[in-house]
Amino acid sequence: MSTPAEAAPPRGAGPRLATRVFSAMVLVVLAGAGTLLVVSLLLAPTVFHWHLDQAGVLADSDVSDHVEEAFAVAALASTGVGVLAALAVAAAGSLLVARRLADPIALTANTTRRLAAGDYTARVEQPQMGPELAALTESVNLLAQRLEDTERSRIQLIVDLAHELRTPTASIQATVEAIADRVLPADDETLATLSDQSQRLSRLIDDLASVSRAEERAFRLSLTTIDAVEAARAAATAGAARFARAGVTLHAPEGPPLNVLADPDRLGEVLDELLVNSLHHCRDGDSVTITAARRGATADITVTDTGSGFDPNEAERLFQRFYRADPARGNPTGSGIGLTVARALIEAQHGTLTAGSPGHGAGAHFTISLPTTAS
Ligand SMILES: Nc1ncnc2c1ncn2[C@@H]1O[C@H](COP(=O)(O)OP(=O)(O)O)[C@@H](O)[C@H]1O
Ligand SMILES: [Mg+2]
Fold it and tell me: Which CATH code, of 3.40.50.300, 3.30.565.10, 3.40.605.10, 1.25.40.10, is assigned to 224-371?
């Protein structure tokens, strides 16, 4: 836990909090004492006269004058002493209040300074000083958590990327060296290998751009009410030719409209990714079925295939960046980020994307859940 910052306050910020609280208290004490004094000096003589009259003391007698004078002096003296005592209490009180208020504020300022300096582990402790300061510390901690997560995923991305780039670059370098050493001829076959590897590099670069955009949510979304059944049918129509060429049957959903709140383009991209993945994991004779069904306040669009499937324990890992369960079987040119991007796109639309499979060789299913809308 950090200690309150000792850094000098910014110039032009005005008096310290303790001074402001003390000034406010002094004003209240003086205003109270003044009002008390004026009211009692205006009211008391009349009340006194009445009582003296009742007691039979003559209004112009010496006793009456003396009593009234005594009252005025007593009122002035006791108010004066009272004001001094109240000021002393106000000074002590304002120091206490200012301290209780200033410490958590200083701690929060110190934490944000540490965050700005790149220390994303910095957090503020809950000050137990009411809902306003609790909300302030909570939002600072939330910001810190977000920065820490982003930094961690940035570092992980660099590590993953370095790992992914190593294979094609090492291969290009080895081929070029072999040509230079005349171990390999610079013929069409060698050049095709070089071209393949450099294409892999450029695909990786494109993938990298889309994964970082998706993970940082740096894309524009336009959420509208769309028919999930229609969206699924459109994705199926777009992929129909590829499926026919591969001998894989593609079933699109039928039925009444099922309205969801989604971005039609982004949903289309995700459906396309799921269909391409399924196609890569299916053989001639397999089939892929898209269904759309309401489930409470959400609608599920599921892509089910009869392809190679995967180990059910692996379901969550499929969504990790650059993760490919069985590179030899799936998309030969894939880099394992399609599902990462797809999940980020669906989560940005307040939905979820999950995967399941009964096991190797038993097919797979991927479900997009999106919030439904009434109309
Ligand atoms: N329909 C599917 N059937 C079996 N495995 C799948 C299916 N779709 C995706 N996978 C697995 O999930 C991994 C990650 O998918 P993805 O992120 O799209 O990467 P890529 O398609 O580039 O390999 C794939 O490499 C594959 O192992
Ligand atoms: Mg893919």
Answer: 3.30.565.10
